[in-house]
């Protein structure tokens, strides 16, 4: 009877804030008769502080009105149940290593500007040819899990908007991104003169979202400029190369309807950044190299954008993953015997 009373008191104390019962104390009060007795069935939910977590439940339920994007689909699965009966493939760490290693950084180049470097940001046009682009490689080598969630999101959007509505939604998203990049180019390029259309673009929520980021951006070296990796055989069009808080970075501007405060929420964007970085560091059109990356996620409502800075070490980690995706694309292309122009 005493032991039962003691257990009840311990449970009450554990549920109180700021108090915990040390394991050593439990051992000191244990007896042989208690250890050998029949184990009591305890409901694990009895000790849950429902008042403590009520705010969390309320915030999750209140967020259901947010527009659906691929980033919100996994949360939808927990709250609303599956759209289809198919289960997503299991996600795990990729144990593979690249078979054909090539360094992301160029030891023969410096990240410091040369006196002969042009003062005007480089803007090399992208030449469309049979060489695959970074975007194409990433799209063709998405994991089964990525394909599952993307298709699931598409199904949900079509159910809500219809086929035509979904096409219009995608067109609007593309147009918003294009205008956002045009406005940034007007801001960052010293040669650009503001037109009436540009002035309207500068009033958008996306620009308001990145204003605090732009204050730390200086020394622009390239804008909407093409890169090509002749050894690894791929091309790309990077958004910007500039200094962010004093460090030269490949900057990738993104828009999102859903907050993405963590770099893990940006999906393959880090791979895209390091792919551009590795190509630029070995492209003869550029006399300098970059060792850092920056992903900036802007929001339409003007809320502060999330900057995701990638130092040299993190870039090297993502570079290894990019090499694996590039090898996978090359192997897939050989097996399927396809080679279509971009």
UniProtKB/TrEMBL annotation:
Active site: 239, 252, 254
Domain of life: Eukaryota
One of the protein's GO biological processes: mitochondrial DNA repair
Chief localisation class: mitochondrion
Enzyme class: hydrolase
Keywords linked to the UniProt accession: DNA damage, DNA repair, Exonuclease, Hydrolase, Mitochondrion, Nuclease
Entry EC no(s): 3.1.-.-
A molecular-function term among this protein's GO annotations: single-stranded DNA exodeoxyribonuclease activity
Listed GO CC annotations: mitochondrion
Keyword Nucleus tagged: no
Family: Belongs to the MGME1 family.
Name of the protein described by the UniProt record: Mitochondrial genome maintenance exonuclease 1
Encoding gene, per UniProt annotation: MGME1
